[in-house]
Amino acid sequence: MFRSVRHMIYDLIEWRSQILSGTLPQDELKELKKKVTAKIDYGNRILDLDLVVRDEDGNILDPEQTSTISLFRAHEIASKQVEERLQEEKSQKQNIDINRQAKFAATPSFALFVNLKNVVCKIGEDAEVLMSLYDPLESKFISENYLVRWSSCGLPKDIDRLHNLRAVFTDLGSKDLKREKISFVCQIVRVGRMELRDNNTRKLTSGLRRPFGVAGNSVP
Questions:
Q1: What is the mean pLDDT of residues 166-176?
Q2: Residue 113, SS3?
Q3: Number of H helices, E strands in the chain
Q4: β-bridge mates for residue 166, sequence order
Q5: Confidence band (pLDDT; 50, 70, 90) for 202?
Q6: Could you tell me which of 113, 106, 220, 114 has the C-alpha nearest to residue 174?
Q7: CATH for 1-105, options being 1.20.1270, 1.10.10, 3.30.70, 2.60.120
Q8: Distance separating alpha carbons of residues 217 and 207, to the nearest angstrom
Q9: Dihedral sign (CA 93, 95, 99, 104)
Q10: Residues 6 or more apart from 46 whose CB is under 8 A from it?
């Protein structure tokens, strides 16, 4: 609703500038005023505001100088025009949805390419970086994890893969593309001591996996 109203306001601002410029011929000016009033009436309707009745030139009718029958007929005409606009918008949206579904159905699968450049996170020990796709509305992961083992020195454990940490999430079908939201989630698991502050060699442990951090971003 906010996006729709914002778009209409932008249109009205642009049209107002054209009207105030005084450069439009009379016939174009008349048509533009009709577009403005139609847009205002349509916006009032979707916001559940009162319908304003107007004459053929778009001027608001004065109830003190207009008969009740004329006001009623003008109200009927305005209501009909707004209803036609609503039906037109609904039909266009349905056509867009149908075309989008047909396009998705015609494409068997998709893929998401990921290139890991660096892990800017002070961990202090070795870590595992897991990346996956997540549906926040269904609260579940929709892909397997891409695992990168990161050393305490701030480099990949497999140094031969430096600057070559790439993965492809494959077999993303039309069902996945129709999801309302998909997030790319990165989890960091610390591998080492029970506590980072544990310097007692007698209690020192190693190889324990502990959650360290998580980050996420919406997939466009």
A1: 78
A2: strand
A3: 4, 7
A4: 115
A5: low
A6: 106
A7: 1.20.1270
A8: 29
A9: positive
A10: 1, 4, 5, 86
pLDDT of residue 188: 92
According to the model, what pLDDT value does residue 24 have? Answer: 80
pLDDT given at position 185: 92
In three-state secondary structure terms, 120 is: coil
- 123 contacts: CB under 8 Å, gap ≥ 6: 150, 152, 188, 190, 212
**Among positive and negative, which fits the CA dihedral 23, 27, 31, 33?**
positive
DSSP label of 131: E
What interhelical angle do 68-106 and 26-46 show, nearest 10?
80
C-alpha span between 141 and 183 (Å, rounded):
9
Residue range(s) of every CATH 1.20.1270 domain in the chain: 1-105
Task: Report the half-sphere exposure of 65 (CA within 13 A, side-chain side).
Answer: 5
Residue carrying the six token digits 């269904």: 138
Which segment of 12-21, 103-112, 147-156 scores lowest on mean pLDDT? 103-112
